[in-house]
Specification:
Domain ParB-like N-terminal: 19-107
Biased composition (Acidic residues): 304-324
Region (Disordered): 292-325, 365-408
Structural class: alpha+beta
Biased composition (Low complexity): 373-386
Shape: elongated
Helix content: 40-55%
Largest sheet: 6 strands, mixed
Biased composition (Basic and acidic residues): 387-408
Number of strands: 15
């Protein structure tokens, strides 16, 4: 029998004892918390093993004098597993009345004990971990010896603690995690990015926003550099088409001519400030992608220096012509380059620039007629003004086409980047789900139905072997192993997960970065598009995955034209 020490305190008619006792001597009675496995985490057990039971267990004495635990069964079980010989126990009088009254009292108090507890907020955790670091404790020791946390969380907390934006965000939105706060810290000082992330967090799509920002990080940095350069010259910069006040006279540079009728819409960007004073210029900036070829040292190589007659199908022993370089020895990369998407000029007439309509109006005022084929003109004669009109129309039409093509290219590049970002988040979620021993609770029937539908309606997807869309390769990446190998020794429930992985791999191979495009090519056949919709809705409805904007375009819930190109 274990030794017991006790101290009794009397409050009114009720005597309360503080007892130090071996946890093995405690009796665990009925409890509102039945799932103790969920509470007995590795972290909790490590804490009990190192620090002991810090908060006393609460118990009552039964008719046989035994101490029956009322609050603290998890602490009791953890103390036993940790091999503790002593734990503090507060012994309170049992409720008066019959067995029914005592049961009601027990349940009510256990509910109150378990329900009305508030753990540390993410902000408080970050501040606490930061305090330990300031005390000279290394991140590794904080994780392993003191708080028994994954070191990744400790690193995230320390990153967040250094950022006022992240700490303020955690104070304002207590649902933010330490990982999310660390991501926010990476954008300290970038109000646009932080707003995007916090808005996404409220909608449960933080990971999507973070992936999208990461996908355009190079482009955003390039735009920031160009913005600084232009603003230093006194030019006003916008990220999207500006809205000018009604009393502001402005025109796009692409619609302007000199007084002599010379079109200036194609003026090189670096020469525009020579044409119009900087104070009267507004620039809408964006990014484009440029293909870059580099040698083994990373030095860029000009396209004119490359022998393009050589490719992967050429005999490996074939040498490049003359001093040209073999492209097979080079590395191709795509880099974001900031550009001025459109120039606007304030008060263009003041700077000697006019629209063609204004030039025609001036001509009419000077000659007394418009150039519409005057009946008094010689038959078949063509005035210089008429030729100029046609030239102007041709130039303007070409400028409009180029602007439309540039806008379309801009949209394709942005939406493709969003497609890649969504794929990263989606596959990350799948790896998490497919790494478990069992299917998510309550999803077995829905998963079985989805697998059956895929095998019956979309079985060709399982045979995809394209270079960037190999179903077997994608499945192996999602599962972290060859599925046939993974089946060996796996139990029935794990085999269900592996089967789901095979089916999801086939659907993932059917979702390229440009799956948002409308029907057209073979890969966007009716079956393929329907399969994408069914797959993404399955992930949203059954797996608990939040669809990104670009994925909502794919399933038909959102129009691609409504997605902002900013950011």
């Amino acid at each position: 029998m274990s030794n017991t020490t006790a101290h009794t305190t009397t409050t009114g008619a009720a005597a309360v004892e503080l007892v130090i006792i071996d946890p093995a001597a405690l009796v665990i009675g009925d409890n509102a918390r039945s799932d103790t496995d969920r509470a007995l985490t590795t972290t909790f057990l490590a804490s009990i093993r190192e620090h002991g039971v810090l908060e006393p267990i609460t118990a009552i004495r039964d008719g046989e004098g035994r101490l029956v635990v009322r609050d603290g069964q998890c602490r009791t079980l953890a103390a036993r597993e940790a091999g503790l010989r002593e734990v503090p126990v507060i012994v309170t009088p049992a409720a008066e009345g019959d067995e029914k009254a005592q049961t009601i009292d027990r349940i009510s108090k256990q509910w109150a004990h378990n329900e009305h507890r508030t753990g540390l907020s993410a902000r408080e955790k970050a501040a606490t971990i930061h305090q330990l670091r300031l005390a000279g404790v290394s991140p590794t020791r904080i994780a392993r010896e003191h708080l028994h946390l994954d070191k990744r969380l400790v690193d995230a907390a320390l990153t967040a603690a250094k950022s006022s934006a992240a700490m303020d965000a955690m104070a304002a939105q207590d649902s933010l995690t330490l990982d999310q706060a660390a991501t926010l810290a990476g954008y300290d000082g970038d109000d646009t990015a932080i707003t995007k992330l916090l808005d996404a967090a409220r909608d449960g799509r933080f990971e999507h926003a973070a992936a999208e920002l990461a996908a355009v990080a190079e482009a955003r940095a390039a735009r920031a550099t160009l913005r600084t350069q232009l603003e230093t010259q006194g030019i006003t910069v916008h990220d999207s088409t500006p809205s000018f006040a009604d009393d502001v006279n402005f025109a796009p540079l692409g619609y302007l001519y000199t007084a002599d009728g010379e079109f200036v819409g194609r003026t090189d960007d670096d020469q525009v400030p020579e044409l119009v004073p900087a104070a009267s210029l507004h620039a809408v900036i964006d990014t484009d992608e440029h293909e870059v070829w580099s040698d083994a040292s990373g030095t860029p190589v000009g396209e004119d220096s490359i022998d393009w007659d050589l490719d992967d199908d050429t005999d490996p022993d074939t040498a490049p012509e003359g001093d040209l370089i073999d492209p097979r020895t080079l590395t191709r990369s795509v880099r974001a380059v900031a550009i001025v998407h459109r120039w606007y000029v304030i008060d263009p007439n003041t700077h000697g620039l006019f629209t063609w309509a204004q030039i025609n109006q001036r001509r009419t005022a000077e000659t007394g007629h418009t150039d519409t084929g005057d009946a008094t003109a010689s038959a078949g004669a063509e005035s210089a003004e008429s030729a100029a009109d046609r030239a102007a129309r041709v130039a303007q039409d070409q400028a409009d086409r180029e602007a439309a093509e540039k806008e379309q290219r801009r949209r394709v590049l942005k939406l493709n980047k969003l497609g890649v970002a969504a794929q990263q988040v989606r596959r990350g979620k799948l790896r998490e789900v497919l790494g478990r021993k069992t299917l998510p609770k309550g999803t077995a029937a829905a998963v079985a139905g989805f697998v059956a539908t895929t095998l019956w309606n979309y079985h060709p997807l399982l045979a995809q072997t394209a270079k960037d869309a190999d179903a077997q390769q994608v499945t192996t990446e999602l599962l972290g192993a060859d599925p046939m190998t993974a089946l060996d020794g796996a139990g029935a429930e794990r085999r269900q997960v592996i089967t789901l992985a095979i089916v999801c791999g086939a659907h993932e191979a059917n979702l390229p970065k440009d799956a948002w495009r409308p029907a057209g090519a073979f890969e966007y056949s009716r079956m393929g598009r329907t399969a994408r919709t069914d797959y993404l809705r399955f992930l949203a409805d059954v797996v608990g995955y939040s669809l990104s904007d670009i994925e909502q375009v794919i399933v038909g819930d959102l129009d691609a034209a409504t997605i902002s190109l900013e950011g």
